[in-house]
């Protein structure tokens, strides 16, 4: 693996783990640790009830970031689990374009500067 490919892989790993940790810390853990108060505050847009809605939010904001940190459900591992995609995954992981890195970096910057996350 060339140094450019290696640095790209490390950059994507850093962004994936960083975004997952931010989601976990800012949204997921407060909901999990303050379950009773969150039951009173959570909106119920689908009419499921407060407890199922909060359980789905905790799933999405606690369990999913943990899986993302482990690499499960990310682009490369998702396709690698399917045997018929194995060849295309190897070729696509070999060259990560700078455009993909810029898009990922701008997404992470917009995520951390969003007024909704404060």
Residue-averaged pLDDT: 76
Number of strands: 0
Pattern of helices and strands: HHHHHH
Whole-Å distance between the termini? 40 Å
In the predicted model, the low-confidence regions spanning at least 5 consecutive residues are 77-81, 83-94
Helix count, per DSSP?
A: 6
Total domains, how many? 1
Question: Using only CA atoms, what is the Rg?
Answer: 17 Å
Task: Output the keywords.
118 residues; elongated; DoxX protein; transmembrane; membrane; transmembrane helix
Task: Please summarize what this structure is.
The chain has six helices and no strands. The chain has helices at residues 3-33, 35-41, 50-70, 75-80, 86-94, 98-112.
What does this structure look like?
The protein has 118 residues and is mainly α. The chain has one domain (3-113). It contains 6 helices and no strands. The chain has helices spanning 3-33, 35-41, 50-70, 75-80, 86-94, 98-112. Helix 1 runs antiparallel to helix 3 and helix 1 (3-33) packs parallel to helix 6. The protein is elongated.
Q: Could you outline the blueprint of secondary structure elements for this entry?
A:
Elements (H helix, E strand, L loop, with lengths): L2 H31 L1 H7 L8 H21 L4 H6 L5 H9 L3 H15 L6
